[in-house]
Amino acid sequence: MLQEVKNQLRVTTKTIKYGLMREMINKTSFLMNIAFMILNNASFIIQWIVVYSLKEDVGGYTFNQVLLLWAIAASTYGFSHFIFKKSYYLSDVITNGKLDSFLVQPKNVLISVITTDIEVSALGDILYGYIVLVISGLTVTKFILFTFFSITGAIIITDIAVILGSLSFWLGKSDMIADTGNNLMSNFSTYPDGIFKGVSRILLLTVIPVGLTSYFPVWIMTKFDIKLTLVIIVVTIILTIFTFLIFYRGLRRYSSSNLMISKI
């Protein structure tokens, strides 16, 4: 079991490495993609500077906390889209029969599928996250927590993308559902949770797990809370296990369908 994990990590690392080398053939395009993503993200901070020039806090968040919110949201998005880009196109992979080539490989099907490509511009999101972290006030503890929560957050939003994409095993083409769900995660993650009230706030802390990817990490980096940290770790593990179960349950339907077609 341990050897299989090591082999999978080795394959995944090489896949990302070769994908990065392929993108770096055109260095100008490579660097421009990253630079423009950083500039695109930075433009939104200007809006918050204007808002905080009129108010001292928004939804209970200070300007520094909003900076942290944007930093963790960008970095989480960046890690997920750079390493697990194909999880956001899983519906297309399933409905167009593109899983076939992965089924005959002696590797974990799900991990192999979602790590087959990288999104270069996502490196801009990651770098932007760390730049904003430095601006908000960098400490060693904050850096470690930020990196840790960027990784757990990336795993969580990747899990959500895979679960929504896996609906295609049962519903056919479900890319609209997947896109809507993924957009909800990214759109709400950059706004202070205090501006949401009642049912909407409850949904963001439970059903739409923005709380786990953005709000809780900001609270913990502002004032460390071991209980909230453990909640994030436990939920990330449980959600990841559930994601694998959903995908492989659906994969059995995919395999059966292909076998029936081949017999006919």
Verbal overview:
The chain is mainly α. The protein has one domain (about 1-264). It has helices at about 1-25, 25-55, 65-85, 90-95, 100-105, 110-115, 120-135, 140-165, 170, 175-190, 200-205, 210-220, 225-264. Helix 2 crosses helix 7 (about 120-135). Residues about 255-264 have low confidence and may be disordered.
Helices and strands in order, then pairings?
Blueprint: H1 2-23, H2 27-54, H3 63-83, H4 90-95, H5 100-103, H6 109-114, H7 122-137, H8 140-166, H9 168-171, H10 175-188, H11 198-205, H12 210-222, H13 226-263
Helix pairs in contact: 2-3, 2-7, 3-7, 3-8, 3-12, 8-10, 8-12, 8-13, 12-13
Number of strands: 0
Q: What portion of residues is helical?
A: over 70%
Catalogue the unreliable spans. 256-264
Q: Quickly give the structural class.
A: mainly alpha
What is the molecular shape?
globular
Largest sheet: none
Distance between the termini: 38 Å
Order of helices and strands: HHHHHHHHHHHHH
* Overall tally of domains: 1
Q: Which descriptors would you attach to this protein?
A:
mainly alpha, 78% helix, disordered C terminus, single chain, 264 residues
The gist of it:
With 264 residues, this protein is mainly α. It has one domain (2-263).
